[in-house]
Amino acid sequence: MREGRRLRRLPWALAQLCKGALLMFVRHFPGDLGTHLRFRYYRKRLGALGRGTRIDEGVHIVGAQHVYIGANCWIAANAFLGAGPPSTRHRHVLRRPNPDFAAVEGELRIADDVYIAPQVLINAHGGVTIEDNVAISVGARLFSSSHHYRDAGGPPGVPAYPAGMRAGPEDPQVLLVSPIVIGSESFVGANAIVLPGVTIGPKTWLGAGGVAHERLQPGKVYSPRLELVDQPL
C-alpha cells in the first residue's frame, strides 16, 4: 500500500521538479536572452506585465498572480516581491485601513516607469500600490504586513504575543496588516523602511535610511529622521 502511494505521487513530484528547474533556469539566466526569457515567462504568470519592462537576474517573485507591473519598469537584480493574501493560520489579524489604497488586500500594483533597485524587498501581503515614475533605491524595504506584539485591545508597549516559528492554538500570533501607497514621482532612498499603513505623497523624497511610520506629505523632502529639509543638503 505504501509503495502504491509513492507511485501515485511520482507524477506530481516529477512535475514539481520540472517547474522548479524551469524557474531556476529562467530566474538566473544572464544577458539579454535571460531578460527576454523572464519577460515571456512572467507575462504568462503575473496578474499583468506591461511592454518594455525589464526583470533582471535573481529577482524573486512570490504570489505572482497577485503582482501587476506596468510598462517601461525595471525590476533590478535580486529584488524580492512578495504578494498574495496574508497567512492567518494561528494568527489574529489586526487590520488598519489606508484610505488612499484602492486595490485589493494582497495585491502589488506597480504603475508605469517605475524603478525597483537591487536588493529591494516589497512585502505586499497587506497591499502595496506604487504609482508612476517612482524610484525605490537599493536595499529599501516596504512592509504592508508584519508581526505585532499586541492585539487591538492590548496596552501599548506591553508585549503579549510571540513572533517565532512556534505558532499554534496555544501559541497564537498577531499580524498587523495595512496597505502602503507610494505617490507618483516619489523617491524612497537607499535602505529606507516604509512601515504598514504609510502613504508617501506624490513628488516626495524620503532620505536614505529613513523609517517612514506615518504619512509623508506631498512635494516634500524628508531627512532620514523624517525632518523636513528646508536647507541645502
Q: How many angstroms does the end-to-end distance come to?
A: 73 Å
Q: How many domain units?
A: 1
- Gross morphology is flat
Number of strands: 22
- What is the CATH level 1 assignment? Mainly Beta
Average pLDDT for all residues: 92
Proportion of β residues? Answer: 25-35%
Helix and strand element order: HHEEEEEEEEEEEEEEEEEEEEEE
Helix content: 10-25%
Ranges where pLDDT stays below 50 over 5 or more residues in a row are: none
- The structure class reads alpha/beta
List the strand order in the largest sheet: 2-5-9-12-17-20-22
Q: Under CATH, the topology is which?
A: UDP N-Acetylglucosamine Acyltransferase, domain 1
CATH architecture: 3 Solenoid
Q: What do we call the CATH homologous superfamily?
A: Hexapeptide repeat proteins
Provide a descriptive summary of the structure in words.
This protein is α/β, with parallel strands linked by helices and 233 residues long. The protein has one domain: UDP N-Acetylglucosamine Acyltransferase, domain 1. Helix content is 17%, strand content 26%. The protein has 2 helices and 22 strands. The strands form 4 sheets. Strands 2-5-9-12-17-20-22 form a 7-stranded parallel beta sheet. The longest helix has 27 residues, at 2-28. It is flat. The model has no long low-confidence stretch (mean pLDDT 92).
